[in-house]
Design brief:
Length: about 750
């Protein structure tokens, strides 16, 4: 099973099936789809009831019933017909009119919906007992009217269907049918009934077996064991006096401060005792897991720079790179933000989340559930930094040092960047500086995936603003998946939206647990992927029912495109003024777009009115300008004490000896630094991050296409043959006897 967004290719049986359909209109024209819907309560409905294979047993199995009742509703586990006791006679059996399935990771389906048309009120009421009860399990099957498709049908029994909680079993079924059969196991989670004349439509919504826990609510006071109430599960706080005398390590003291700061509804006994858990203590009771949780330390540093007392005269000061920088009286160099390591936060999330759930009420089949981010990597570049201390701190060992002592009235922000400053926190550093090959077991690749040192980092190494995370955890009941997305989208915004996080439900090999795995779509790896499958756009060789190529360029990406064009144009004229558009100077990897000069824009630029020379203006009052520039820089920067410091620690000397630069709010500077990442992608022949270019198509249904599979299309503009499309979404759509597979792929230049 491939872990999206790592690269994979269409399985061999899918390639064979698609090839067999090329220029074979006769085969295609003979395809008719069948469906079967089985309720966990014990009723199955099938389409094509006049077909011998699907005909229900018994004398009352006709499609139109008899004078006292309508046609058969379905069959029970034993194949016996289920009919209404009484009602309108000679009315047709209900039919499955449509079905849609959105595929998830590893072809474990996430969402499904289907509609049943009933022809009497009694049919509707009976069907509702089986298909409109939230929490009941549901098993959907569909396929073509071929020996391979029909041969996939599963016996209507609980023991047979229960096997499909394993993704391996489902994938083997798809393979055995050459992609002509598919199924879905989930739970009923919603629906409704509507009426149109003498017909009732029952709409049913389902959530996949693996995804359900992600959308279960956490309890208001965390996980409680049987027999516990909310009050008994609430833990007392660590007393400040007790902490001081407890003999606890510095890391344990930090955890105690963190626990005391958690939302009240998350201050439970299991959470409190995490620091004593043998498997989790190394992370929880580690002083490097937390930043700025010691008020005495931050206050001591600020006292050295604020000079707020009555007896302090003049300006405050701070030493930077061996020189003294004058500060306005009252300036506090350390911000109030507190941070917690992402991996540590996830331990807390898993503790306050869902312990597990029982499948079908079977105590022996309790499915465990947890967030797994051990191997989650993110795109990075050597000089990356956070632009928002309200969200994120990046422990970058190669980040440039901000040289406050070099501030002058005519300084540019770029000119203030000095040599690298080591802001590694404990073992956490982002980006990682060495190439690494991720385990193939995780990536799904035969040889794993190799990432380029300096251009990737582990999500677990990032630090999240504690109060930002706290605000999310304070919600009395929240969906685990939604809460996690809030965290991930928040930290991406602190890096100019450069990360595109996706969450997938992945079933472990044992089938006894489900993991929420986080993937970052813009992470780049070295090497060229294996040759993708190639579709033909038009003609007899095409298998497409319909298709489209779409460019959906966001504002940020459009700035990249325009900025790149203007930069190239200005370089030809001996300038580089066009390199930045709204602060984004990043290049488009692989020279995807045309380099033809824009003659109209060249003429417009010739007529531009010159601007006032800012440097000349600043010379009128150098001191005032320098002070103004210093205030601007300090307004953008946020400093935090190093986590290993205690109140007794020496906090004298150079600022960077005891503080880290946690954030710098300057998008222009960020874009300038990010340029290196895009260049690395081109220089090392790596596939680019996903571009805002999608190709969508629909084909006669086939099972087994996965998110992450690669493909090319012959017949679209040749510029797109430089790279490939990667499957982003798969939807199975059944309408009557027609089964379509709808696929959307995102473009990666190469």
């Amino acid at each position: 099973m491939s872990a999206f967004p790592n690269f994979s290719n269409f399985r061999n049986y899918i390639r064979t099936e698609l090839t067999n359909r090329v220029d074979n209109t006769l085969k295609i024209s003979q395809l008719n789809c069948w469906t079967k819907i089985t309720s966990g309560v014990g009723m199955a409905m099938v389409s094509n009831p006049d077909y011998p294979l699907f005909k229900a047993a018994g004398s009352n199995s006709g499609i139109y019933g008899n004078e006292s009742s309508s046609g058969t509703i379905g069959t029970d586990w034993n194949g016996a017909p289920i009919s209404e006791a009484s009602g309108q006679g000679y009315r047709p059996s209900p039919v499955v009119s449509s079905m849609e399935i959105d595929e998830g990771s590893g072809t474990l389906s996430r969402k499904a919906s289907f509609s049943i048309t009933a022809f009497t009120r009694e049919q509707m009421e009976l069907l509702s007992e089986y298909y409109l009860e939230p929490g009941y399990s549901i098993f959907l099957e569909w396929g073509w009217n071929t020996p391979a498709g029909v041969g996939g049908l599963v016996q209507s029994s609980a023991s047979e269907i229960a096997q499909f909680q394993s993704s391996h079993v489902s994938n083997e079924k798809r393979k055995a049918s050459d992609g002509q059969y598919d199924n879905y196991l989930g739970f009923i989670t919603g629906g409704g009934v509507s009426i149109d004349g003498d017909k009732w439509t029952i709409d049913v919504k389902c959530t996949g077996y693996t995804e359900l826990p992600a959308y279960l609510l956490t309890s208001e006071t965390g996980n409680q064991k049987d027999g516990e109430d909310a009050k008994s599960n609430t833990a007392s706080l660590f007393g400040t006096g007790w902490i001081a005398k407890s003999g606890a390590t510095l890391g344990e003291k930090r955890w105690m401060a963190v626990f005391n700061a958690l939302p009240k509804n998350r201050q439970t006994i299991p959470v409190k005792l995490l620091y004593k858990d043998k498997k989790k203590a190394a992370e929880i009771a580690n002083e490097y897991s937390y930043i700025n949780f010691d008020e005495e330390v931050s206050e001591k540093i600020n006292e050295n720079t604020a000079h707020d007392s009555f007896w302090d005269f003049g300006k405050g000061d701070v030493e930077v790179n061996g020189e003294t920088v004058d500060l306005e009286k009252g300036t506090k160099i350390v911000a109030d933000d507190r941070f917690i390591k992402f991996s540590t936060l996830m331990i807390i999330f898993n503790e306050i989340g869902i312990d597990g759930y029982q499948l079908g009420g079977d105590v022996e089949k309790i499915v465990k559930f947890e967030i797994q981010t051990k191997y989650t990597t993110c795109a990075a570049f050597p000089k990356i930094f956070s632009m928002d201390g309200d969200r994120l701190f990046i422990p970058n060992s190669t980040a440039p040092k901000l040289s406050l002592n070099k501030v002058t009235g005519n300084s540019s922000v770029e000119s203030l960047l000095g040599e690298p400053v080591n802001q590694q926190i404990g073992n956490a550093q982002f980006p990682r500086t060495k190439d690494i090959t991720l385990p193939s077991k995780f990536t799904g690749g035969s040889n794993g995936v190799t990432l380029i040192g300096g251009y990737y980092g582990f999500l677990n190494d990032l630090y999240i603003n504690f109060d930002f995370a706290k605000g999310i955890m304070e919600t009395p009941n929240f969906f685990i998946k939604d809460a996690l997305y809030q965290i991930l989208n928040g930290i991406s915004s602190a890096c100019n939206g450069m990360w595109n996080f996706q969450i997938q439900e992945v079933q472990t090999e044992s089938g006894k647990s489900t993991e929420l795995r986080v993937f970052e779509m813009n992470s780049i790896s070295s090497g060229v992927p294996e040759e993708p499958y190639e579709f033909n756009l038009i003609g007899s060789d095409s298998v497409f029912i319909d298709s489209s190529l779409d460019l959906d360029i966001s504002g940020a990406k459009m700035n990249q495109v325009i900025g790149s064009r203007l930069s190239k144009q200005d370089k030809k004229n001996g300038t580089n003024k066009g390199a930045q558009i709204n602060g984004d100077a990043s290049r488009i990897p692989g020279n995807l777009f045309s380099s033809k000069p824009d003659l109209l824009n060249i003429e417009i630029k010739k007529k531009e009115v010159p601007t006032v020379d800012e440097e000349t203006a600043a010379k009128e009052d150098k001191d005032a300008a320098k002070e103004q520039m210093l205030n601007i820089v300090l307004g953008k920067a946020r400093f935090y004490p190093k986590p290993e410091l205690e109140e007794s620690s020496n906090m004298k000397g150079d600022l960077f000896n005891y503080c880290v630069l946690g954030a710098f709010n300057d998008s222009s500077l960020f874009s300038l630094m990010k340029h290196d990442m895009d260049k690395a992608a081109a220089d090392k022949s790596t596939p680019s991050p996903l571009m805002p270019i999608n190709f969508s198509f629909s084909i006669h249904g086939v099972s087994g296409i996965r998110r992450g599979d690669m493909f090319r299309v012959n017949g679209i503009p040749t510029m797109y043959k430089k790279g490939f499309f990667q499957v982003l979404s798969v939807k199975q759509v059944i309408d009557g006897m027609m089964w379509k597979t709808e696929v959307t792929g995102g473009y990666r230049n190469s």
